Amino acid sequence: xxxxxxxxxxxxxxxxxxxxxxxxxxxxxxxxxxxxxxxxxxxxxxxxxxxxxxxxxxxxxxxxxxxxxxxxxxxxxxxxxxxxxxxxxxxxxxxxxxxxxxxxxxxxxxxxxxxxxxxxxxxxxxxxxxxxxxxxxxxxxxxxxxxxxxxxxxxxxxxxxxxxxxxxxxxxxxxxxxxxxxxxxxxxxxxxxxxxxxxxxxxxxxxxxxxxxxxxxxxxxxxxxxxxxxxxxxxxxxxxxxxxxxxxxxxxxxxxxxxxxxxxxxxxxxxxxxxxxxxxxxxxxxxxxxxxxxxxxxxxxxxxxxxxxxxxxxxxxxxxxxxxxxxxxxxxxxxxxxxxxxxxxxxxxxxxxxxxxxxxxxxxxxxxxxx
Amino acid sequence: xxxxxxxxxxxxxxxxxxxxxxxxxxxxxxxxxxxxxxxxxxxxxxxxxxxxxxxxxxxxxxxxxxxxxxxxxxxxxxxxxxxxxxxxxxxxxxxxxxxxxxxxxxxxxxxxxxxxxxxxxxxxxxxxxxxxxxxxxxxxxxxxxxxxxxxxxxxxxxxxxxxxxxxxxxxxxxxxxxxxxxxxxxxxxxxxxxxxxxxxxxxxxxxxxxxxxxxxxxxxxxxxxxxxxxxxxxxxxxxxxxxxxxxxxxxxxxxxxxxxxxxxxxxxxxxxxxxxxxxxxxxxxxxxxxxxxxxxxxxxxxxxxxxxxxxxxxxxxxxxxxxxxxxxxxxxxxxxxxxxxxxxxxxxxxxxxxxxxxxxxxxxxxxx
Lengths: 371, 368
Fold this sequence. Notes:
CATH superfamily of the largest domain in chain B: Response regulator
Oligomer: heterodimer
Order of helices and strands of chain A: HHHHHHHHHHHHHHH
Mean pLDDT of chain A: 90
Helix content of chain A: over 70%
Order of helices and strands of chain B: HEHEHEHEEHEHEHEHEEHEEHEEHE
């Protein structure tokens, strides 16, 4: 309305930042409201089973953020989730529902540990060994998920089913080697590869108790955000995600874009596997199969497949996991409690997706008048 | 902390710690140290198996004065367990940590014990190494095969044919010893007794455990026991088909009201109580603790409807003998390939038996 009374060129210029600001406000407000709504819904559940919601949320704060230790606990648990979240988000932007991050993580971790065996036993310095391990893990993950992308593009195989099934194959491959050819003879009751030893393990970031996987995840999240939103590759990928046939008609290399996106995803998951081996376990064994790949799917959905948003969402999940222990200990509630909260959160956030564009206050006034 | 990084603040910390250390013995004279016991389980606390056995035992400690118990279930063998234990230390002030799953030990318990030298860590598998591992870490492990020997005795007299089935997870020494002990117990009362074993390959594979149970029943066994993480499936399947059962790890008696004979159970509370008493008194609990019936670390589940009166008498006698240290592996015994594997009486804790890689003659099954 004010736009009509103003001089014609002025609103066009001032509307630009307005739209951005409104979009940002919308992108912050809707998830925030969803968080509050799920917290309220979960409180009802808590009251029904006779527990105190106030104490519950206090303990979430204590266990997840309340002290330096708690926050670092959350960050450490978030580290693999950032990487596996990215592994789902990048293919999602191009329209692929690729749920095979778990397999890429396991194989990436396993091959990194396998590659370490000859290097460590011949005494190669960690400065060479660790990058070689990381590169091996990323390459394996990239090839593993890249294969799924290729199957999708060239053979029309459904990528969701294929990547899920390939995860089971990946786990079986790791078990086959860990329980056979590459088994460390001293790991009698829990078959594992040869330990890389403390000298080769990646320590914590200086001044913290959190391993370097967190830093790697944040750097990659920023880099991939730039890639997806500020480059022609990202534009082409998002266009393919919007309408693959239209993208093809425009002459975009849809197949290459798909395979490359999947390879980026696999590299992220493989890197997560590398950090599990190099920073945590020091060897590959069945503990690599911890479900990070699957939790990453939730993280990515809640972040609306935005690489930057994956970081805070992963930290939120890390905090819930960290606080889950305190809740068990103090309130005597079963481990499943936090899963119930996660489930409610997930459903409410998915429902909240439908509210984008529905609130008038977030719509630019000019366009609001026209529609 | 290196020498270079000594600041006024860290010096104060060292001073305070030293002060606390010197004050400790005097403190005990007046009041005992409160024990805050943190325990982590790899699965649910009510799994009718390994985790439940621990949970039941710490529950028995909760009623005692001066002991606080904090528990966490479903903690995977990843850095999640390190963080859970550390959170118990930092947030709950735990001074005794019990890590109950095999894969918790390395690197998680070892690393954390180095980081928190004032906290005692004990792990439920015989892995602690005096040379390489921290002095505030340690291991505890009862030899459950003694209670399975009693199972064998009771089963030998509760079945007509003495044919017993055994659903086992992996062919590792502790599992093999349980199988062999069931056979030796049964043969002590019925020389024709046999044990037929099926390995599932994993600690928890409910579907395969049910299949194995059914296969054993189809081949004519009259009683079944097992060594898997949660015996629930095996016991319920056998009960459903009218076959007698012996339990494992915790009490499964409620699952089999008709056919339950008895079961091999850990009595973890003996160990946990001893640890708590030591810490309350300001002493370091033992680093390496193994045992069995002779030091009250095992029990057999109260006899169920499946046990005959003769079986009860004989099993009670076997328990008394084991309390006195009667050997299980004795005389000359051959494995089921014909090799002599036992040529004298072995003490129940003889290291030779820890490396067991054979099944005795009378056991139908193969470890390869």
